[in-house]
Design goal:
By secondary structure, the chain is an alpha/beta fold. Helix content is 39%, strand content 20%. The strands form three sheets. Strands 3-2-1-4-5-6-10 form a seven-stranded parallel beta sheet, sandwiched between helices. The protein has a three-stranded mixed beta sheet with strand order 7-9-11. Helix 3 (55-63) packs parallel to helix 4 (80-98) and helix 6 (169-180) crosses helix 8 (228-239). The radius of gyration is 19 Å and the shape is globular. Residues 3-81 form the NAD-dependent epimerase/dehydratase domain.
Length: 301
């Protein structure tokens, strides 16, 4: 299959591209910089130059492909409005390019805010609808195209897709620990995060592209619920720092942007995903990754 990938040089995207190529697919990737383009070309990927706001480039890439993976996101936490708007516009552009083709369109989503008081499941509807909602309501907007002949699939990622080289949420928490001299957790630290190793997530995305029916919600989740206090303790152990509770009112000041997320319950299961695709995670767990030094190279931002 010829697959167009946005975010092809990013953390999850680069591993997914490697998995796609190993499985025999051909890949075209969106690249906004010379360095990203060179890295993709070195793998044998055809490059379309452009960024997430270059809707013409995204349209061309999607129209010429037999399947699309949308893994890019600006992640500009200081300007959520612009981030959400670009995400929604990209999903609408890809969906429109695939109307009537029955081609697969896998879009990245998340597990945050899907359920209260329990881990979320694939059966949970995404409550975020409309351009002003989280991620611009992109999951539900993508599913709007199912009735127009697009095989849309949502890949809901755990809050941490971890591994050596990760610069996401766990890296931000490690950076805050180095900066503050303590490894903190919010409140009593009993709220939990789900987690998945990046290689397992990449394989799941590829399997979803190949096999999942239209309208499927997939959970890229290997570990259902890791208490955030346990995450802080693992970070403190590997960095040789004391571990302490941070008052929720002080979380943003202590952690930076990640404070608003580290105090949230973001747990999820993946039983339905595993049964549908025969997917079994094999990578190390989050605490194992931290203990092995996967984040030892992270420095204060």
């Amino acid at each position: 299959m010829h697959v167009f990938v946005t975010g092809a040089s990013g953390w999850i995207g680069s591993h997914t591209v490697d998995d796609l190529l190993a499985a025999g697919h051909t890949v075209t990737g969106l690249a906004r910089s010379d360095a990203s383009a060179a890295a993709l070309e070195a793998k044998g990927v055809t490059v379309v130059r452009g960024d997430l706001d270059d809707l013409d480039a995204i349209r061309r890439g999607a129209a010429d492909a037999e399947g699309v993976l949308h893994l890019a996101n600006k992640h500009d936490w200081a300007n959520a409005t612009a981030t959400n708007a670009s995400e929604r516009a990209a999903v609408e552009t890809i969906g429109a390019a695939l109307v009537g083709t029955d081609r697969p369109f896998v879009l990245a989503s998340g597990v945050a805010g899907l359920a209260e008081g329990r881990p979320s499941t694939e059966a949970d509807d995404n409550p975020f609808v409309g351009p002003d909602s989280m991620r611009g309501g992109s999951e539900n907007r993508g599913f709007d195209f199912v009735d127009q002949g697009v095989r849309t699939i949502a890949a809901r990622f755990a809050p941490t897709t971890h591994g050596t080289g990760d610069h996401g949420f766990i890296a931000a928490i490690v950076g805050a620990a180095r900066q503050r001299g303590v490894s903190g957790y919010v409140g009593d630290g009993t709220n939990s995060w789900s987690a998945v190793h990046v290689t397992d997530a990449a394989r799941l995305v590829r399997l979803g592209l190949e096999q999942a029916p239209a309208g499927t919600r997939l959970h890229a989740v290997a570990e259902t619920a890791i208490p955030t206090r346990a995450i802080a303790e693992a970070i403190g152990e590997v960095l040789g720092l004391p571990v302490t509770s941070i008052d929720p009112a002080d979380a943003d000041a202590h952690f930076g942007f990640i404070g608003r997320f580290f105090g949230m319950e973001m747990s999820a299961t993946s039983e339905a995903t595993r049964e549908l695709l025969g997917w079994q995670p094999t990578g190390p767990g989050l605490l194992e990754d931290i203990a092995a030094g996967a984040y030892s190279g992270v420095r204060v931002a």
